[in-house]
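Sample entry (317 residues):
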Amino acid sequence: LAVSMAVARAGAMTTNQPLYRYLGGVNATMLPIPMLNMISGGVNANNNVDIQDIMILPLAANTYSDAYRVGVEIYFYLQELLQKEGYWLQVSLDGGLAPNLESNEKALDLVVEAIKKSNHKPGEDVAIALDFAASHFYLPENDSYKLKKENQVLNKEDWLKYCIELIKKYPVIAIEDPLSQDDWQTWKALSDALADNILLIGDDIFVTNTERFIQGITNNIANGISIKLNQIGTVTEALNTIQLATNYGYYPVISHRSGETEDTFIAELCIATNSGILRSGAPCRMERVAKYNQILRIEENLGGASNYHGQFFKYRR
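Predicted structure, serialized as tokens:
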């Protein structure tokens, strides 16, 4: 992967073009929605929240810079709310706030309150995305899911009901990995039930692997795919997978890893492919902020030629 990225950068330098223009051509003008982490749980945080990442998507902004500003404001309003209620503040590997909370619902309540405090309408102006990373608390021995705070084990049917109730109760428009990565049958059932109304992202089930992704496409599983460069190995293979997703109506979500550097390649890749969402963690920690800041620089470079994807995002509440 490192060699592949280096060759791409060398090509951009040789032709005196920005990397996003070299990879994407003249039509690379769409600026992504920043999928900003607010509260972390699961394996990425030392707390008792089950959902790995509770994120926001600023949709109503006219520009990327406006959207990012809104996201940063909400993040700091959330900090204030947590401090006011006496929670100990710590951050996760990707910068999300990681307090010990009474329940997963409490975490969502706090995020909704922070959105309101920023004078934005939850769902309409700023929506919520959830990464369950459910494989991490799936119990294969009895085909169930364990919620650690409630110390409750839910069978598959009850777990699905729980997820759907959260989606109905809160302004959630995107979910990732709500089920075990190998439970293709239940993934299919959930996709049939939800894929027309929300963005259902496959990460662990696809692992940016073309063969697994084609199996998902064939069976109409999910409607989005998480793109992680280090899972597939080369820039060319990543570009091919993104093109495959686009051809079949899947949303490619360009994503970071829990262990990151300050390299901004994925930000350039996101614009090069006109992918609508960039997920790089919270607006906190330099290795996270570097990617979001690179989009700001590209927005300035493009000037009036750019469009912000939030205006075109199809899933709304």
